[in-house]
Amino acid sequence: SQQGEEDPQALSIQEGENATMNCSYKTSINNLQWYRQNSGRGLVHLILIRSNEREKHSGRLRVTLDTSKKSSSLLITASRAADTASYFCATAWSYGKLTFGQGTILTVHP
Amino acid sequence: DADVTQTPRNRITKTGKRIMLECSQTKGHDRMYWYRQDPGLGLRLIYYSFDVKDINKGEISDGYSVSRQAQAKFSLSLESAIPNQTALYFCATSVGTSGRPGETQYFGPGTRLLVL
What we know:
The complex is a heterodimer. By secondary structure, chain A is an all-beta fold. Chain A is 0% helix and 59% strand. In chain A, the strands form two sheets. In chain A, strands 2, 4, 5, 9, 10 and 11 form a six-stranded mixed beta sheet that branches. By secondary structure, chain B is mostly beta strands. Chain B has strands spanning 4-7, 10-13, 19-25, 31-37, 43-51, 54-57, 64-70, 73-78, 87-94, 106-107, 111-115. In chain B, the strands form two sheets. In chain B, strands 2, 4, 5, 6, 9, 10 and 11 form a seven-stranded mixed beta sheet that branches. Chain B is globular and about 35 Å long.
């Protein structure tokens, strides 16, 4: 299966701290994406990193991709209570399709 | 994303009933997808459509069927609902014109389905 595996499954931090989530996958990919889901709602795209990129930034988000290790990480700096959500990585390996990991539940305490 | 709408938002049905979940989009995207999400799991692809005449099975299509009535509409049917189809169902769209695999997808708010 191409499905990504995320680590940790749950993360609890205090406001102002950084949050790091990791994603590993099994086969070659075209790109890797991170999505956010607030409780029971639809997923929202956060950032896309292509296989020939190593790092990408968007506001307080930093994503890295190591294709040799088949892994990616999402760093949220200076976390806020509003960042509380589930975060999913999704790998793009076949035309038009994404395969999602099981997600990391992030809780940021005020 | 308000550009992708799903109806109904919640549905309770009984085993053996046929139900339809509907998805509409105003984004003008060619590609549409149906996923299901179970507690503690990621999303699994049920069906996808790259244009009105192109329908493809995903990884868990058994027990489901779809219809792409127009570029903007993609419906998912459960022909004879069973309890293990209880889940949160999402519709998503993507542009389809970039020619690149794995484009960004835009999700609807979801339909919560309970099969008794």
